[in-house]
Each structure stands twice: as C-alpha cells, then as structure tokens.
Amino acid sequence: MLLFFLEKKRSIHDLHSKLVRFEEKENVCKREREISNAHTRNANSKTMSTCILTSKDLLYNVLRCDINCYCSESHAYADWDVSRIDNFEGIFENLVMLNTTGMETWEVTQVTSMARMFQGTTFLDGIAPEFLNKWSMQINNANNNILTNTSRMFFGSNIRRVFENEQAPYRKVVDMSYMFANTPIETIGSGIDTSSVKIFDCMFQNTSVFAGSMLAYGTPTFFTSEATSMAGMFEGASAYNADISAWHTYQVTNMRAMFKGATAFNQDLGNWNVQNVENFDEMFAGAAMFAGTTLVHWSAPSAHSMQSMFQDTNVRQEFVSHSHFDTHTHKHTTDVRCRPLQSFERFNAN
Description:
This protein is mainly alpha-helical and 350 residues long. It has four helices and six strands.
C-alpha cells in the first residue's frame, strides 16, 4: 500500500514537471511570435511611412547604398527622418549631387557641425542645391542656432556659387578654416555671417577666380572682430584683390602666409591693428603686386617671426632696410628676421 502511494506521488510530480516545461516552452514560443510580429510591423511601417536614421554613420552609408538599403527604395528623401543626428560631417563627401528632391524637408536645427559636409562633392553646374538654402532658412529661424563648425565644408568641390538666395546661418560658427579652399568659388551670394568666427585659416586658399568684393567688412555680415587666426586665408588666391581695409584684426595672433601667392593683391592695410600678431612668416611672399606702402602705420610689439614676409613682392628694399628689420639681402630675401618690434613707424617708403 505504501509502495503504491509513493509511485502515485512520483507520477503526479512527473506530470507537474511536464506541465511546467510545457508552459515554459509555450511562453518561449509566445515571445518569439511577439518578436516576429514586431519585426513585421516595423518592416511594414518602414515601407509605408518614415525611415528613421539615428546616426551620422548610418546616414553616410544609406546615401551611398544601391541595394538592400536601410531605407527602402519606396522611401523618398522626404521620408527620411534625420532629426536625431547632430553631426553632418562628411555626409555628402565625394558624392555627385543630382537628384536631391526631398532633402529640403530634413530637420537640421539640431546639427552642430557641417565640417567636410560637401568635401570633394560634385554639384550640377557648380551651383549649391536648393535644399541648402532651405536648410539655411530653417536654421536661421530656429530659436537656438547651435551650428558651430563649417571647416572644409566645400573643400575640393566644384562649387562656384552658393548662398545666392538666402543668408547663410553661420552666426554661431567658430571655425571656417579651409571652407572654400581648392574650389572654383566665384560668388558667396549676399555673404555669410562671420560674427563669431575665430579661425579663418586657409578659408579661400587656392581659389583662383574668387574676387571677394562681398568680404568688405559688414557687407552685409562679414565680420572679423572675433578672429584669432588668419593663417593662409588667401594663400594662392591669385585673383583676389578686394578692399578689406576696414577689417578688425586686433585679436589675431597668426597671419602666416595670409596672402602668400595672392599675385593680384595690392590693397591698403594700413589701418589694421596687428599689435597681437606673433607670426608674420611669408605673409605676402609671392604677392607680386603688393607694395605695402601704408604698413608704416603698423605697430607689432608681439611679433616673433617674419621669415620671408615680403619675398617676391613689390615692396621696395628701402621700405624694409629703413625699419626695425634685420635684413641680410634685398626685397627678394628668403630670410627677413626682426628684432622685438615696438612699432613700424620707422618704415620709409620714400
């Protein structure tokens, strides 16, 4: 009798164990079905509504994808949601900009950097796409403009004309180095807001056709009062000869090679405040037309180096030799050294 009771108890226990295992297996299957249904819903949603992109790398790859892309072929650019991406660095790099319809609807007010955004990009007829004007309007109208970096934005592209219909939204940008370098840029439309820019290094380097009349101070929003470095800004800009006499330069510490190779440049810079500039190396080297007669008004107590500052320019020998410069040869010198300068007032252009 006892044996029968034990066997029956064991059978009940086994049955209970089987029921538990069955329930566990059923729960697993239920979770798998739920996951599968979720994937199906997401897939359906993806093909029927918005394609949400959450990172710069994902956007970069999708823009270059041909088949089996994250955003399906049924998604037009207008269906792409990029509002979670705050970094647009290099996203259009080396692309050929043909059909961009729909990109004008993208939310971009959250973007902090557009560095290299169009580096090496090919534009139709060298004209910036319309969506860029729409983005400019969108950022300009935002309560909190947080775009701070446009360095190398168009570097090496074929851009000729940009910001023709809308003011560029750059009032908070700090770095514009190399922004248009190595491009055939001709026109920057109504100009760009540079009121916060500190770094102008090589901004127009090797822009062989850029005349730059829109860069006169405050026309309409080109300002240099926050600038700290202008090294190589117009280096190799062989057509540049605009009046920039009113630029504010009192915070600038580096003007190395600023007009190096700017063969057409010969403007009056006598009113520039260069008291904080430390490096003048090759500033006008190769600027064959530059005479520099008004530099007698400069005071440069912070200058440490002026190597080859006037090499291969039109600056006369007397202008240098009757100054505080220690010159070893004539105006074509490759080694123009200076003692610690208190002023340039002894420059003699006569």
